[in-house]
Amino acid sequence: MASRTATELVHPDREQLRFTAVLAALSDPVRLAIVARLAEVEPDGELACTTFALPVSKSTQSGHFKALREAGVIRQRDEGTRRLNRLRRDDLDTRFPGLLDLVVPQGRAVIAGW
Amino acid sequence: MASRTATELVHPDREQLRFTAVLAALSDPVRLAIVARLAEVEPDGELACTTFALPVSKSTQSGHFKALREAGVIRQRDEGTRRLNRLRRDDLDTRFPGLLDLVVPQGRAVIAGW
């Protein structure tokens, strides 16, 4: 099995972001919660996948991060054995102004309900 | 086969609307286009399903309307042989302020691209 490398992590460019794909990525409570957590550490904060106390299995969690990355909501990079996540605030605010401001409180509400 | 009756049409109450379900319903270009068309005839306008010139089959179209209705984005009612659709602007603006304002221009862009 290949070791993790940064080159595995595909990210759409800002111009490639599609509104419908972003909405689909955000249409899940766990993914909303991830976005809300990442919004807490903006602008430069990154959080390792392992620091999210999510009520799902590790593999399910990985799938959620991947869905967010592939839609362009988060940026991921590997550092040693950790996979770090950052919210793509600038890209999302540029392409879809107001969307994150609307989404983050919904993610906070999800976390508050856990 | 039973004739169409209004009682078949299930609509969630305003309090039952879920953000993730609404986002999922909106995460499709055809459904965004439907929302944008309905936004043109607000507040009291209703459009029959048959008046939407959508680039999909009739059955696919019906599925899209149903998805929007079940998520609480539109209200449907039958009048004779026509099924009429109306945007649930008040409910959506109350529960998720700003969402429709963000979504409608995206739907217009979809239509412009057809």
Please explain how this structure is put together.
The structure is a homodimer of 114-residue chains. Chain A has 114 residues and is α+β, with helices and mostly antiparallel strands. In chain A, 47% of the residues lie in helices and 12% in strands. Chain A contains 5 helices and 3 strands. The first copy, chain A, has helices at 19-26, 29-39, 58-71, 89-95, 99-112, and strands at 47-48, 74-79, 82-87. The first copy, chain A, has a 3-stranded antiparallel β-sheet with strand order 1-3-2. In chain A, helix 1 packs antiparallel against helix 3 (58-71). The first copy, chain A, is globular. Chain A starts with 18 loop residues before the first helix and ends with a helix. The mean pLDDT of chain A is 93. The A-B interface holds A 19-21, 23-24, 26-29, 32, 96-99, 101-102, 106 and B 19-21, 23-24, 26-29, 32, 96-99, 101-102, 106.
Class based on secondary structure composition and strand pairing of chain A:
alpha+beta
Shape of chain A: globular
Largest interface, chains and sizes: A-B, 17 and 17 residues
Rg from Cα of chain A: 13 Å
Strand fraction of chain A equals 5-15%
The spatial strand order of the largest sheet of chain A comes to 1-3-2
Report the sheet with the most strands of chain A, covering strand number, pairing sense and barrel closure: 3 strands, antiparallel
Oligomer: homodimer
Q: What's the β-strand tally of chain A?
A: 3
Helical proportion of chain A? 40-55%
Mean pLDDT of chain A: 93
Order of helices and strands of chain A: HHEHEEHH
Low-confidence stretches of chain A: none
Q: What is the rounded distance between the termini of chain A?
A: 36 Å
Number of helices of chain A: 5
